[in-house]
Amino acid sequence: MALSFAVVACSSSIMCKATNANNHLHLQDLSYIKRAALISDKSAGFTSPHPNFGCLIVTPSAEVVGEGYLYAQGTKPAEVLAVEAAGERCRGATAYVNMEPGDCHGDHTAVSALVQAGITRAVIGMRHPLQHLRGNAIRALRSQGLQVDVLGEDMQSKLVEEARKACLLVNLPFVYRAASRVPFSVLKYAMTLDGKIAASSGHAAWISSKLSRNRVFEVRGRSDAIIVGGNTVRRDNPRLTARHGGGHMPIRIVLSQSLDLPEEANLWDLSDVSTVVVTQRGARRSFQRYLASKGVEVVEFDILNPRDVMEYFHDRGYLSILWECGGTLAASAISSGVIHKVFAFVAPKIIGGKNAPSPVGELGMVEMSQALELIDVCFEQIGPDMLISGFLQPIPDLTPTIPSEDETFAIDPTVAPFETSIIFFYKTWDLYGAFSNFSPHPIQMPDEDGNYVTWFSVEHYYQANKFIGVSNPLAQDCIDKIKSAKSPEEAARMGRLTQRRHPHLVRSDWESVKIDVMYRALKCKFSIYPHLNSMLLSTAGSVLVEASPHDLFWGGGRDGEGLNYLGRLLMKLRSEFLGESSAASESTCIAL
């Protein structure tokens, strides 16, 4: 009997130790996942909003030996950077990523890096929000023998949900955009304690403190664009800059139905950042021509409403938009269901005034029970002000309940994926995103002396070629800066800005050679990467369209009015590659 008790006691002790060890490992996993989510946000404000990926490599002895994060669209994946930092210490280690790898559709660099480095386990904070990428990397890693744990699926608890939420929050714009087909939109306003955004006279400088205004600059830097209405332009004449001394500058958007706007306004100064004016079709044609002469882009809608405008900017690739408008436009945006989150800066001031404006206009509600209640409300004191933030719409559920196209095809073979005869591509994370000139695929091209030079992307090479051959030290300096740019986005920004500010530095034959420059770069890219070549050939019989709604030269335009030269060049290359394959097959047949 005593022996029996001893055995039971020993087993209990072993079970207790195993449970404690598992709990410890569990807590470590969550800590590392939160760290991956934290570092994934490091490039905020320096580059355009993009999917945020962070990766940690941790040894079995719990030592962090490598970290990495995606800097911008078209740059090295976080997993590759983390593996490079860890080196040989990757063998037998665990990789922690806040989101399932997949920053460029058609590219498997991240998965390959983890497998080839000898990683044996991967802990993933959340599945990829995009349907065409969701689950792909997880399946690929498991097929290579890695243990893959996904928060909320393979690991569940209250603490797990907190860690998973951290992963969701760092990619909110991406998650909302994928679920709602409009950019993630934040309504921001500052008001007095009695709910006024200006005095009865319209004067509003300043309601909030300098600390609060600095926070607004940070929020702007995390946005693709800032939206205001015509009243704000007329009353405040804002600049709407991020004011951080460099890096990403959000586009300024003005919504005005009548186009009753002043001829002189800070927003018409495009020296640092562009402005888009959105209006009703046919409004003030003469003023539209005036804006066009200043370089301001004008986009017309048959009926101007926030939902249609947001769908347009979704198609334009925007992830996050900040609304800094007055009460009338704010009410219209809320009623249209395009506002996802609210940032309200409340200052300890009272201004009064029966006619003083409030942050949100008429919503048609007559009872308090109809009031919109914020979700996950947060309170933060910023100097003398209180920042109240919360969501108007719940965070979308990413639990994979809807079958993917491949899974649907397995269930019903008559439903074939990708039946369409037109294939659209634009952002690198979109379906067929690897076709983009911003994709993270370095190329080697000969320079003027015939020596091969490596360029980080097709876009790097294209932008630098604007200034090649110009006998001016500034042109060479611009080429060097573009070549060393950390991302295709930065290379494009440098090239476009220099072309706009210093047109004399652009080579005289640029307009006649730019198509050939792009063609040669694309041919190199699709020649040296076999998986990209295979992807291009798989589209045989389909029309390829670069889906930019605003680039009417390289893209297809908003209503198909664009020249779509990027799509044309890819189709030309596809024909050439198919011809080569056919010729090779014929040669093989003859040899046999």
Automatic annotation (TrEMBL):
It is found in: Plastid, Chloroplast. The keyword Transcription does not apply. GO terms for biological process: carbohydrate derivative metabolic process; riboflavin biosynthetic process. Keywords: Chloroplast, Glycosidase, Hydrolase, Multifunctional enzyme, NADP, Oxidoreductase, Plastid, Transit peptide. It catalyses: 5-amino-6-(5-phospho-D-ribitylamino)uracil + NADP(+) = 5-amino-6-(5-phospho-D-ribosylamino)uracil + NADPH + H(+); 5-amino-6-(5-phospho-D-ribosylamino)uracil + H2O = 5,6-diaminouracil + D-ribose 5-phosphate; 2,5-diamino-6-hydroxy-4-(5-phosphoribosylamino)-pyrimidine + H2O = 2,5,6-triamino-4-hydroxypyrimidine + D-ribose 5-phosphate. CDD domains: NADAR, Riboflavin_deaminase-reductase. Pathway: Cofactor biosynthesis; riboflavin biosynthesis; 5-amino-6-(D-ribitylamino)uracil from GTP: step 3/4. Residues 27-149 form the CMP/dCMP-type deaminase domain. It is an enzyme of class 1 (oxidoreductase). GO terms for molecular function: 5-amino-6-(5-phosphoribosylamino)uracil reductase activity; diaminohydroxyphosphoribosylaminopyrimidine deaminase activity; hydrolase activity, hydrolyzing N-glycosyl compounds; NADP binding. PROSITE patterns: CYT_DCMP_DEAMINASES_2. Its EC number is 1.1.1.193. Its main location: plastid. One of its GO terms (cellular component) is chloroplast. In the C-terminal section; belongs to the YbiA family. This is Riboflavin biosynthesis protein PYRR, chloroplastic.
